[in-house]
Amino acid sequence: MLQHTVKAFDEEIETLRGLILEMGGLAEAAIRDAVDALVQNDREKADRVIADDRKLDRLEARVDDLAIRIIALRAPVAVDLRDVVAALKIGGVVERIGDYAKNIARRVPAIDRKVKIEPLAIIPDMAALAQAMVYDVLN
Q1: How far is CA 91 from CA 18, 38, 58, 132, in A?
Q2: Measured between alpha carbons, how far is residue 13 from residues 33, 51, 56, 58, 75 in Å?
Q3: Which of 60, 57, 78 is nearest to 16 (CA)?
Q4: With contact defined as beta carbons under 8 Å apart, do 83 and 15 qualify?
Q5: Which residues does 81 contact at the CB level (< 8 Å), separation at least 6?
């Protein structure tokens, strides 16, 4: 990474990256926990996933605020501007992943467990692939 004459600028960019990584970790956990709750019919875990989605929402707001602040005060160019714009876009996508996990968790009470549901057998494998993709993209 390039070093800038203003150390605060480098710190803001690193903070932005850290927030995105934190969001990614929360999104991965939300996918895992939502699918676990679905497969195990664990309503408490589903409720936690739903409640924890607010953390992702708050982190996305922090990413947006910091990115806008960086653009307004630092006027980044080239690589730095691409990093800031990418953080804005990635933050929105990762927050949406959390929303999808929340939606899965909301379905837990609605599924009739008396009826055998074939897709429940493959959903954990699909979720593992989705988690791996989130992890790979953010790394």
Answers
A1: 11, 26, 11, 18
A2: 30, 29, 19, 18, 13
A3: 60
A4: no
A5: 71
- Sequence-distant (6+) residues with CB within 8 A of 117 are 111
Please name the amino acid found at residue 20.
I
Is residue 12 within 8 A of residue 70, CB to CB? The reply is yes
Which tokens hold the place of 106?
């909301």
Q: Each residue's pLDDT tens digit in the chain (139 positions)?
A: 555 557 888 899 999 999 999 999 999 999 999 999 999 999 999 999 999 999 999 999 999 999 999 999 988 889 889 999 999 999 999 999 999 999 999 999 988 776 777 777 788 999 999 999 988 988 8
